[in-house]
Write a structure and sequence with these properties.
This protein is of the alpha+beta class. The protein is built from nine helices and eight strands. The strands form two sheets. Strands 5-4-3-8-7-6 form a six-stranded antiparallel β-sheet, with helices on both faces. The longest helix is centred in the middle third of the chain and has 31 residues, at about 70-100.
Amino acid sequence: MVSSIQEQSLLKSAQNGLRILRLFSREKSIWGTTEIARELELPKSTVSRLLDVLCREGLIEKAETKYRLGLSLLNLSGVIKYHMEIKREAAEPLQSLVDKMGETAMIPTLEEEKVIYLLKIECKQPSYLHGDIGENNPATCSSSGKVLLAHLPMKRVDELLQAGIPKMGPNSVTNPETLKEQLQTIKKQGYCICIDEMHENSISIAAPIKDYTGQVVTAVSLIGRRNRMSTQPISDIVEVVVKTAKDISYQLGYIGAE
């Protein structure tokens, strides 16, 4: 067990590591150990130790006797930029979906066995059913999570399921083989319907969004209360959600989208 003193030491090291990373900018992209120690008022030995850790993680790299940002950070910045592009292109179609259906719509990303919401547009009657931006939920009992899992290699799905399949709503699927059968069906039909899986009295419907390469990169999901959404045919709702996913895919450059 980590003691409170050890925890404070680890936290301090993490904070100082972040302070070092923030020094690098367009104006000054290369820094030496002594310069960093002087700028941050830290012992040179501490800075040297932190630089070694950051180098091992690929966050910075050596430039002769000094340091510059590493490729790992550049990759992370590329991911952030891509997520921003998705949010920008999805905003208008997602708003149209909410206006037409009167329910909340969301765009997620898959992080290990969780879905994290990048974009969310609330309906006029919001409820406890909806996650907030940045919040994560188990992918195995969310329609958008299942859509994203369905387009992963089965070997990767098996790895993610080793973390366990949580029981959330009354209809949550907790058997791995049953879930994998569902994922095959979802991939084939091009959408997912979850009823009472994340919460009781809930329906979520999701469809995949593809980028210009044809790869599924995210999904669009419509989420609402079952007693409200069941007043119209589910097939009609599915049609609108799938159409919205195709519209966003087209915005991202997927030429196969109508």
